[in-house]
Amino acid sequence: MKKIFILLSVFLNFSFVYASDEGFSKFLDEVKGGFQEFKNQQDKEFYEYLKNSWEEFKSFSAIKRDEKPKINKAPVVRENVKLKLDKERVKVVNDINYVNENSPEVSEDSQPTKEFLVKDDGLLFYGINLSINPKNYGKLVTLPIKGEKIAEAWKKLATSDTDILIKQIISNGKKQNFSDWAYFKLVKSISNFVYSDSYNDRILFSWFLISKLGYDVKIGYNSARVFLMVPSKQLIYGAQFFNFNGVRYYILFSDVKNIGSLYSYSGKHSDAEKFFVFDIKDNVKSKFSRRDLSFIYDGKRYNFEVEYDIFNVTFYNDFPQTDLSVYYNADVSKHLVNTVVDSMRNLVKGKSEAEAVNIILRFVQTAFKYKTDQEQFGYEKYFLPDETLHYPYSDCEDRSILFSYLVKNILGLKVVLLEYPGHIATAVRFNDDVGGDRLKIENDIYVICDPTYINANIGMAMPQFKGVLPKVIF
To answer: Domains in the chain and their CATH numbers?
Structure first.
C-alpha cells in the first residue's frame, strides 16, 4: 500500500507541474494509450468531415450481364461437315458495329489469403517476398456502428505509426510493378491477417489503407456492419452499388444479398483521387502446374502435356466480374505460351488459314469438358486462359477467350467475341476466301467460329443463332 501511495504522489506531483502546460493533455493521452497529433492537415480535415457528414443512401441491385440462361449442354455436330465455298449459299450479315465495353461509368472473406504468409523478415504474398511488417492497432469500432465511431477509427489509425506500413506497401508495390488489383489484394490480405477475428475492423483497416494509397473508396454502415465501396472505370457485374454524384461505388466481397440502404458520405479525402482500374496483367511471380490434354482432328488423336500458372489462378480467383473485353485483352502466363501456344503452333505449321483455325477450334471444343459456371461454382465467373486449363470444366465465354487468344497469337488473325442471348462465340477475319456463316463488321468479313459447338468447323454457327445479330466485343 505504501508503494502505491508513493507512486500516486509522484504522478500527482508530475501532473501538477504540467497542469498549466499544453503538453500535459498530450502526456495524459500517451499515458492512457491515446492519440498522437495528426501527421498531415488532410487527414485532420477528413476526420472533422467524417464526424458529422453521414447521410442515408439507397443501394442499387447488382447488374447482371445476361439475363438469359446459358445452354446446359454443348451441342455436337455428329458428322464432320466439309467446309464449302459456295458463295451463293453464304449469308452475309451487314451493319454490325464494334462495341467497346469499356464503360465511362463507373462475401465476407473471413479467412486470410492462402498465398499470404507472415515471416520474421516480412511476408510472403503469392510467392513474392515483401519487406512489410503489419501489426494490430487495437479495436477500431464497436456495436452499434455509428458515424462518429468510424471517424474516431480514422483518427486512431491516422495518428498512429501506420505511415510506416503504408510506405512499405508503396515501396514494395513499385518494386514489383503492382497493378491496382495487386494493391487491392495485398491490402485485403494484410487486413484479413491483422484483424482476423473482426470483420468490421478489417474492413475499416482496408478502407484506411486503400485511401492512404491514394485510391478513392468509401465506407458505408448499418447498425451491425461496415461495407467497403469501390468505384471502377469498368462496369462491374454481380455486385450491388451506390451512386455518389453520378459515379457507381460497388460493394465487393459481401455475402449480404440485399443491403437496402447504408449511411455514408458524399465527399472524399483530398489525397484519394485515383479510381481502381480492374485489368489483368501477367503476374509478377509464377508457379507452374501441369495437365494432360488430348483431342482428335481428322481422325488423328493428339496428346500433349500443358503447363499453366497456378498463381494466376489463385491471384484472380476473386477478381470482380467485369467487361469481357478485359479478359479478351488479358495477359497469359509464360508457361501457357511455352506449352500450349508452342505446341499448337507446331501442329498448324504449313497449314492453310482455314485448316489451322479448324485445328485450334477442335482443340478448344473437345479437349475440355463443358459445364456452366452456375453448375460448377454456383455463380457466374469468367476464366482467363490459365484458369481454363486449371478447372475441370469451362463454358462458352471461357472457350471463346482461350480460342481468340490462340488464333491472334499463333496465326496473327483478327478475332472478335460475339455476344448472343445466353451465349458467347467468336468470329475470325481471314485473309483467304473462306465460306460459311459470316458477318460484315466495319466493311470486313468475319467468319463465325464457335468453340462450344462441338466438332463444328469454321463458318458453322449454332442453329439457334443463325441470323441472330450479336453484339461484337473486341
So the answer is: 49-60+107-231+237-264 (no CATH), 92-102+285-473 (3.10.620)
